[in-house]
Amino acid sequence: MNGKLWESFRIGRMELKNRFVMPPMVTRYAADDGFVTERIKNYYEARARGGAGLIIVEATYVHRQGHAFANQLGISEDKFVPGMKELVDVVHKHGARIAVQLHHGGREAKSTVSGSQPVAPSPLPGLAGETPREMIVEEIAEAVAYFAEAALRARDIGFDGVELHAAHGYLIDQFLSPTSNKREDEYGGDVENRARFLLEVIAAVKEAVGEDYPVWCRLDGKEYGVEGITLEDAQKTARMAEDAGLAAIHVSAWGPAAPTNRATPTFAPAIIEELAEGIKKVVSIPIIAVGRITPEDGERMLKEDKADLIAVGKAMLADAEWVNKVASGKTDDINPCIICNGCRDDIRNPDLAGIRCSVNATLGREKESKILPTAKPKNVLVVGGGPAGMEAARVAALRGHKVTLWERESRLGGQLVQAVIPPYKDRIAPMARYLETQLQKIGVRVQTGKEATAAAVAESKPDVVVVATGIRTFIPDIPGLDKTPVIEAGDVLEGKAKVGDRVAIIGGELVGCETAEFLADRGKKVTVMRRGPEMATSVGPSNRAFFLSRLLDKGVTLLREVRYNSVSPEGVNITTKDGEERTIEADTVVLAAGSVPDNALYEAVKGKISEVYSIGDCVEPRTIRDAISEGFRTGQKI
User: Fold this and answer.
1) Active site residue 602
2) Domains of the chain
3) What is the pTM for the complete model shown?
4) Catalytic entry in 170, 187, 424, 564
């Protein structure tokens, strides 16, 4: 492919084969004590093989004091050197360059993993919730030395460069931000003083590694949702950092309202390009831009001189071959990131062993997820064209099986058809298109409008049956519900039912709340009720607060801990958590009380065919990630 994206480029002495960068993203695939594992080597090797010009290894702690995540990589001691050398070697053998991001969590460090109270410029708690101890000047000098020692270690290991993590609310950024830095000494106050720690780190690192070794930093171009760093502040800091000897600046953003961490009403590419452009205007060193940048927008940004390198993060989690597929023009074959932020939520979940991806079951399991040709091709029948069924059919066909898929509706997609309709959800649509396209390309025989019965299955004489029949609507036991016209939430979203001006929704999980926002955008007065104490608990923490705030901003009434007394043509009679009985008057009552597995077909064919699998929501209603994972694993083992 032609274009500036495919030109070689240099950061200092480091030459890159193209302008695509894989930015640092915490995976938690390291060992408990920070050592490189086979898993993390396989993960990075897959992205190097996938075509990235530069891979920046995730936030790696420079001292135990700054250890912020369970299973975080470490480079604080020489004991980490052998494993890190192996990591460098697996990336280099695919022609990619590799750098490491040097990280100190500051107040975001956790005493449970670091063994000590966090430290920070000021004693203000951050997202981690622990109150840090304010660093004295001598401790600041010690932290500077930690970065320098780690950088020297990285150079000697064979990393092609180092990135200083000066963004996203960690230690260096805590000094830079007026929100977290309330010091009254030479390290606090105006931009110059708040940047002092960063400049001292740069100077110490440069002295340790030599002038010609590439050193750059990741910098917030702006903090959103707080009285924090402005673009003007970031420009001043960038100029000082360039004067101090940095070879490049990787421009990001941070804050509770940062657009990089939020969905938008419709998919918005290059979401913070104005920040990269703003920094590039005031420095002469290369700028790495990031933030949902598509190939088209990346090429445009390079041509318009808004950036020099394009970082593609979550898209490379969703598809390790992203760069190669763009290069060969096979964009239809890219497994698309749906911006669900599940990977971000996994970072801080102590019960998980590393991040996962909703659309890519191979993430963090690259070695064991190779799709190998079958020695014995079989006739495989997949019943159900939702994500679980389509993924099982895709993988089974790639292995060499003859696959037929039956879907009772007139179109594929299953619940994805309704999932893309609510506001802020069009980001899911590319996933359904990708799966359907792959089935066409690899020759899966798809029959829509095909109702599967046990007799029809037996008549088709399959060797293997994969049942992915999804869900049925759960009907709660509420007096009057069976005598009152009630509309299912899915019919509302698909426009199959007429809805009045006043709407009462029974059920306040994801579907109920999304349907409420959908109706509020159409001018309806909506009340959502649920028996439980919280709304939309299945929505991950990265998205939940923003989601619920939108409902309130749009005038949706949210009632928790209610007891349903009855449903009638007048509305829904409830008892509130305060014991008050009242009727939520409504022209339309919408049912969104959950779902139950539709497993009748599985029970009917089980034992009658030698190899039968049940996957997805017909096992238990769960998430897209669960559906894709079960579909992939099942396709692998047939």
Assistant:
1) no
2) 4-347 (3.20.20.70), 374-473+598-637 (3.40.50.720), 481-593 (3.50.50.60)
3) 0.96
4) 170
